[in-house]
Amino acid sequence: MALLPKSPKARRRLYVVAAIAPVLAVAVGLSLYAMRDAVVFFYGPSQAQTQHVPPGRVVRLGGLVEQGSVVRHGDVVTFAVTDKVATTKVTYRGDLPDLFREGQGVVAQGAFDASGAFTATQVLAKHDETYMPREVADALKANGEWRGAGAPKTAYAGVR
Amino acid sequence: MIAELGAFALLLALCLSAAQAGLSAAGRGLNSPLLRGAGEGAAAAAFGAVAIAFAALTVAFVTSDFSVANVAANSHTDKPLLYKVAGVWGSHEGSLLLWCLCLTGFGAAVALLGRGLPAGLKSLTVASQGALGVLFLAFAVFASNPFLRLDPAPLQGRSLNPLLQDPALAFHPPFLYGGYVGFSIVFSFAIAALIEGRVDAAWARWVRPWTLAAWSLLTVGIALGAFWAYYELGWGGWWFWDPVENASFMPWLVGAALLHSAIVTEKRGALPGWTVFLALAAFTFSMLGAFLVRSGVLTSVHAFAVDPARGVLLLGILGVAAGAGFALFAWRAPSFAPGGVFAPVSRESTLVLNNVFLSAATATVLLGTLYPLIVEAVRGDAVSVGAPYFNLTFVPLIAAALVILPAGPLLAWKRGDLKGVLQRLWAAAGLALLASVAAYALYDPKKAFAALGVGLGVWLIAGALVEVAERAKLGRVSGAEAWRRLKGLPRGAWGMTLAHVGLGVFVLGACTETAWKVEAAETLALGQTMRAGAYELKLEQASSVDGPNYLAERGVLVATKGGREVCRPEPERRFYPAGRQTTSEVALCFRGLSDLYVVLGERRATEAGEPAWLVRAYWNPWARLIFLGPLLMAIGGAISLSDRRLRLAAVRKAAPAAKVEAAA
What we know:
The complex is a heterodimer. Chain A is an alpha+beta fold. Chain A has 2 domains: 6-37; 41-142, CATH 2.40.50.140. In chain A, 28% of the residues lie in helices and 28% in strands. Chain A has 3 helices and 7 strands. Chain A has a 5-stranded mixed barrel with strand order 2-4-5-7-6. In chain A, a hairpin with a 5-residue loop joins strand 6 and strand 7. Chain A is elongated, with a radius of gyration of 23 Å. The relative contact order of chain A is 0.14. By secondary structure, chain B is of the alpha+beta class. Chain B has 4 domains: 1-165, no CATH class; 166-330 and 350-381, Four Helix Bundle (Hemerythrin (Met), subunit A) (Up-down Bundle); 405-516 and 625-634 and 653-663, no CATH class; 518-620, Sandwich (Tick-borne Encephalitis virus Glycoprotein, domain 1), CATH 2.60.98. In chain B, helix 7 (167-196) crosses helix 9 (243-268) and helix 10 (272-295) runs antiparallel to helix 11 (308-332). Chain B has helices spanning 2-30, 33-62, 69-74, 81-86, 92-113, 119-143, 167-196, 201-232, 243-268, 272-295, 308-332, 347-378, 387-404, 407-410, 418-442, 448-471, 479-488, 491-516, 623-641, 654-663; strands at 383-385, 518-525, 529-532, 535-546, 551-561, 564-567, 572-576, 581-585, 587-591, 594-605, 611-620. The chains are: A alpha+beta, B alpha+beta. The interface between A and B is large, with 59 and 81 residues. Strand 1 (39-43) of chain A pairs antiparallel with strand 1 (383-385) of chain B, so a sheet runs across the interface.
């Protein structure tokens, strides 16, 4: 309200308040309501094991695709995501993104089942071959497995 | 040599921008036409210098001069010429140079074209634009210089990311930046108005064409980006509520709000403070977008050329520019003369309501985009906010705004006749209801919300057409008279109609495509078939193809509907050796407004050991409308811009001329 010009005409101000207040209330209400369900938490494999993510809850799992772990049976692909401390097995039905490769960072969205296996509904592609999702970089750093020179690599040849 | 010339020109542009800011401000302070003129000259010269730097970098890319680090990192001798040129703005450094080119370009445009502007307002605008130029050019020169040399020079470059080697994406950044940075001049107008302490109808009339130009460019830029995501990424999606997409969408929303509030300020002298606030906010969101995209603080699938260290510098620039702007606003805005009074039922109050909804919608997008940062700062958890949040918050708010939209242009200024307007809109309302019911009845599966969305799209289109018909008094006067009236309508009115129709077209396409698209994926050996919607696809052959800088596997399929062949999609799976990347080249079959969308996946083997390919096919009903709608909006903006009353140089004297034209 302070953003609007001060008018001597209280009536107009009242109209404006009457117009803004319900919209604002609806916006705030919807945001709060939507935030409860729409927020997806991110875990690395070792965090996911220690923090006991409830089965069935939609989360994102990130780390490196373990070398030699990618196995295809028809439409179903299984691979292992690792942060070098713990490893989680991921099952995914469908076509993997073009840039999915062993040894590289990956973010999978899906849910754990009761046995601790992860079923992904979505495997996120990254468009830039030098780009590492920040959560993956942070998770790897937290486990002392970060191999970059202090910071994520830049896309700048002189530095790279 | 050419790189040194470019580096020199860039440094020169920095000095000229500083001169532009200093001379113009001094010219205003001392009221000296000489200093003012010198400031304007410096603005033009700064643009010239950046243009030379930009040309130098382009030459370095076209000639594949790999001794320039930026060229070596982003180009390759085998790349087609278009993508060598597009590589200029494909990197952090190059895109910042493009940003500076637009920034100084808009400054020079105001300096050279703004003849009718009040002298003080013009000088301060040019000075503010110069100050922004100093900030960004200093960043370009000292932290992001595209002309650094490599010694020894490599024999071959690392090439541009293959996903970016695409016509839609080659032109996406220039349009996007034209829009982003176009808001800088609006920002400068706001700063000038705050210093002058005057926001009146004349100021709003000056701001509108610039806002319109920036907003139209941004519309095209976002649509091109969405179209690229649609067919290049091979997921069949066009909007993911990804932070990078939101970063471009927020300035667009604020720009749309500004366009409408500036009309109220121009016609009724009301809302001066709010219009100035939006003018400041639009460029602030542009800078926020640049920071979010370039710094990588938020995880995005579209992150290119990310550099956290320099992202912090961008945050610094954002803080300085926006901080100064809003501090000035807080200091000066309370002294603005309050605007006129208006009745609750009037065109201006629908425009206010439009602004309320657009601002609330922008706020929800901002919250959703920054929420992961907030949570991480407060609790240390890494989270992401996805499409469900935005569907629940943004969509209802914007839908409410769209429901009231057709009534706005029909209401009169000051005191409107709501009953009369509703009577005139009953035909549109009936049509919309009919469309909803038809969509619910005909489409399978039945989706109530999507059917309502279809109705909303029809409501917008029909409502806009009703407004034109009303202006022409169609049906109430003779056909010839109505035609004469239609021809006499100002281009601004046509522009508005087209933009609103475009919005309706977009809503129609977005709802239909999202709700009723059909997805199918199957592993096909040669000769095998699959179904996607009403279509049957048969993999006829697969072959290897050599491209200029890639190797590809091309599948040839035959699509039939009811036994009749309708098209032969030829999707490719390309491998770019330079970056060791694989991309999918989607095949699109245009079926009227809908698309049959075919992607060739990995090669696999059948159980018998024969080669087979994973083929994914989508039936995307009315997907064309999603991109046609924004195009109509941008064309509407361009038509409005060509209106005499808004033309950049002729502001005041235009009214009689327009009448003459109408009579002729």
